[in-house]
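Q: What changes when 4'-deoxy-4'-aminopyridoxal-5'-phosphate is included in the input?
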Amino acid sequence: MNKPLSSSDLSAYWMPYTANRNFKASPRMLVSAEGMYYRDDAGNPILDGTAGLWCVPLGHAQPKIVSAVQKAVATLDYAPSFQLGHPMAFELAERLKQYTGNRFSQVFYTGSGSEAVDTALKIALAYHRIRGDATRTRFIGRERGYHGVGFGGMSVGGIGTNRKTFNSALLQGVDHLPHTHNLEKNAFTKGEPEYGTHLADELERLVALHDASNIAAVIVEPVAGSTGVLIPPKGYLKRLRELCTKHGILLIFDEVITGFGRLGTPFASDYFDVEPDLFTTAKGLTNGVVPMGAVFVKPHIHDAFMQGPDGIELLHGYTYSGHPLACAAGLASLDIFEQDGILEHAQSVSDYFQEAAHSLRGLPNVIDIRTIGMIAGIELSSIPGKPGARAYDAFRRAFNDGILIRVTGDIIALSPPLVIEKKHIDELFGKLAAILKTLD
Ligand code: PMP
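A: The predicted holo structure follows.
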């Protein structure tokens, strides 16, 4: 048991995406983690229903990752990423490429999901320019999309509250597709909802407005996570792909949460059988152990740069691109995915997980439940005049009762480590049901 920190100990850390004053008045502190559980500072186990922030597919303190990172830090703690290489960075890129079934040919490393998104946007612009298509500078995002907090990602993102403070400092020339969430038509669906495929055709409207010759790329999350588990309608992503191809627009998937097994396949593009031109990842890439993101590109993207003028092909990169510790964690994670049959396990429990989520139907205030792969969204009705308050109350109570859930607005998002077993699913949904029964 750890000594509780006093309120003055808490003041220096300005916490991200947190109501700091509220948190510091009654902090929740995690001090260790192993397998499916965190422990708080009073020593209580907390079942991880969210894989940290969607980033721990293999469970916590995986011994193979721990020892790979320990070995790496003692061997090569850091290597400059510009003009110098180290073997693990190349080895990981090759393994990642193989993990896509060799459909993608190169990997560009970043330090986070936000950096991966901004990198993908920059690659898209540079790709068109190098091919003589320099007018293609516009991006199309989607309402309710979340693409991290860089200026690029925030601009293509579609969350009004995140954008409003930054107003005209956001990227110019960005437009948004409508989101696909429709409670009236699609409530309580398992997998892809039936209604809403036609919303992909809104891209035609934006093309008519801006002209294809001015549009660089469309970026979407295959399944939007941060804004409350929005699952694409059947055929929607295929239609987007067709329209992008028709108009010479690049399609970028932001797979920061869907990458590395969340849907029981290596990537969401495998699950939906739709291939973007480039896609972003982070989080599960290193099992959350060392920060790392990556952009995967198809051969035609990389070839365009290699056929361009000699010299540095892309004037872009980070001090921590391909950090040795992150590469070690990434390689060990891939080993575990492959050797321990993680995807097969996720596939084998996902139906049980989804059924358990849908068993909450009928409990007070539950207005929708939507599930896909190892993701569940449970939407609660809002308390009039207090949006988000009901789900936040559920979150606080859940923590006290020993389960970690994530809430966004009045939506509970669950995305446990893929190594979850049925007994954990029973614990997670049993406790959540008890909480929902007694919420105001
Ligand atoms: N894209 C998506 C789809 C995400 O879900 C997130 C993070 N939740 C990001 C980008 C940003 O990643 P990071 O927080 O690592 O910058």
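Observations recorded in class: The chain has a mean pLDDT of 97.
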